[in-house]
Structures are given as C-alpha cells and as structure tokens.
Design a protein that fits this description.
five-stranded antiparallel beta sheet; 36% helix; alpha+beta; globular; 325 residues; disordered C terminus
Length: 325
C-alpha cells in the first residue's frame, strides 16, 4: 500500500488514482462479456432469474461441468430425450439431454441397382448445427455440448425458458409486430436448413422469444449424405451478411470445425450443397441485382410477445428444445 511519508496514512489522491486504474482494468472485462452475449435473449434459471453466465463460453462451460440434480423423460419428440435440472454453485437451470444415435438404410424402390441411401438420426448433429450457426454468425441455435451421463454419450443443450413454439403461436393467433423482420428470419432459417439438409423443420421445432426472435432447434435428422437441396427454387432471397460469410468462408475451416461431429461423407455433402447455394444466389443476383436478392436483417425492438394475456399464459413445460413428431 502507498502511504504518505508525512502522515503515514493513505493519500487520498493516490487512492483515487488506484481506483481509476482498477476501473480501467476491470471495465474491458465486463464489456467483453457483454459483447459475447447471444443475441438479445436473456438466459434464465429455473426460477426465471437471469443466469450469471450469458456468453457462449460461459453457458457451455456450465453445461460441461454442472451437477445433474434431476432427470425427467420428455414425453414428446425423439425417444431418449430428457429434461435435466443442472446445478452450478447455487444456480439451477434446465437443459435437454439427447442420446439418440441411429443409422438407417433406405433401399431404392422399384428394384433398381442404385446404391441404398444412408440416414442418421443422431444427437451429435445438434452440436454440428450449433457449430455451423456460430461459424456463419447466425447464432440462432442454443448452446450445446457433448457429454456423457450415467455412461450414455449424448449432447446437453441449454433449455430456452420463456419462449413459445411456433405451433403454439399459430394456435393462439399471435401475429409478429414486424412482419418484414419475421419473414427475413424465416428466410435465414430456410437457407440454413438447405445447407444442412434439414427437411424436418416443422412448427414444433422452432422457438420464439419475447423479442420475436426465431431460434432453431431439433437438428438430429439433418446433415444427410446427399447434395440434393429440397425446394431450392423457393430460395429467392438471402440475408446479406449470411451470403457474404457463406461465400467467403474457407472449406478447410468448415471441415476442421465440423470433423468432431460429422462423418467425412456428411461434410463432403454439406460442402457440395454450399456450392449449389452459392451458384443459385449468384444466378439470382446476376439476373435481378443485389438489391432485389440480398437484404439486411432488421434489428429487434418493435413489440414484444404478449402471451401472458392468452389463456394459460406462457408454459415453458411445453417449450423444450426437442423435436416434435
């Protein structure tokens, strides 16, 4: 401690300087955490209070290390999915554990000699979708980690509290306050699904938070071993930043980031679909111009989801990040 020679006590000026220095050191750390938050969504604990960790790294570290307090099988969606209560210190929060890993072989119809197609229904695909969402700077897949629980390998994904399934939104006839942004988000989701060969995007596997932001869930049936893109002709527009990232990213980076989760042929098929998407949008831009094909996603801020006024209010028990049948 720095003291005054004359009075043998802390000099007020020195103390003030020390406080300012400490503040200057601590402030960037706080700002760094704020900047790594995932969108505008506030991640909540079991009591509906903000979690002490809000960044990708903070949430994933908690998912890796948290104590499993309780487990309950989810009676809808993929067999084996469980809702967990996890505990870190005194903080309790919900998560979803998936352990499905099923391979199927579809024989070609009509007695042809074509090679049979292979399909996987795997929990690890959720990790691949999350990693690719981050790589493309979409950030609409909830954080997930690979983890073994009681000897069963699988994935643990944070539960999104205070959200609404798309099927519930339709049932309650809730209309987005910003229709343009709503359509833009659906177009981003459609491009992402085309890239990962996800043909199982139904009204039960997308979530809406109170900022009317759409989140992508349930990707265990994606990443097919095929270069085919369903309904490619319907993809008439693309978000500008997604387009630039998709076109500019190096294939080797994609391979390296997805190798822990996907088989070689699944990655190769994804890269072929990427090239198809690039050629598709390039042709549209050449024909119609960038202004007609590319758009900038509007930020949130117009209206909030008012489902509390609806019969029954919000029900997080019906909004797990698990697929609908």
């Amino acid at each position: 401690m720095v003291r005054s020679v004359q009075h043998d006590r802390v000099t007020p000026i020195v103390t003030l300087v020390a406080v300012c220095v400490m503040s200057a050191v601590l402030t960037p750390v706080i700002h760094a955490e704020e900047q790594t938050k995932i969108g505008a969504y506030l991640w909540l604990d079991v009591e509906g209070q903000p979690l002490p960790f809000q960044s990708h790294d903070g949430i994933r570290n908690a998912l890796h290390t948290a104590q499993v307090v309780s487990r309950k099988e989810i009676d809808r969606g993929v067999a084996g999915a469980e809702k967990l209560v996890l505990k870190v210190g005194t903080t309790r929060f919900h998560a979803v554990f998936r352990s499905i890993d099923r391979k199927e072989k579809a024989e070609p119809a009509g007695g042809t000699t074509r090679r049979p197609k292979h399909y996987r229904d795997a929990a690890i695909f959720e990790s691949a979708a999350y990693e690719l969402s981050r790589l493309l700077d979409i950030n609409r897949v909830p954080p997930v980690v690979e983890r073994s629980i009681d000897g069963r390998n699988g994935t643990v994904q944070i539960w999104m509290e205070d959200t609404l399934l798309e099927v519930e939104r339709i049932k309650r006839r809730l209309r987005p306050p910003d229709g343009t942004r709503w359509i833009q988000q659906k177009l981003i989701m459609a491009t992402f699904d085309a890239l990962i060969a996800n043909t199982d995007r139904n009204q039960g596997n997308s979530l809406i938070d109170r900022n009317w932001t759409v989140w992508f869930i349930d990707h265990t049936r994606a990443f097919k071993d095929s270069s085919k893109i369903h309904n490619l002709a319907k993809l008439e527009k693309c978000e500008r930043h997604l387009w630039e990232t998709l076109r500019g990213i190096d294939e080797e980076i994609i391979r390296r980031r997805l190798e822990p989760f996907l088989e070689h042929r699944e990655i190769s098929a994804l890269l072929r679909r990427r090239l198809k998407l690039i050629k598709h949008f390039e042709a549209l831009i050449s024909k119609h111009g960038e202004d007609d094909v590319l758009f900038d996603l509007r930020p949130p801020g117009v209206g909030k989801v008012d489902w509390d006024a609806q019969p029954g209010g919000a029900n997080t028990e019906k909004n797990p990040a698990v697929p609908a049948d």
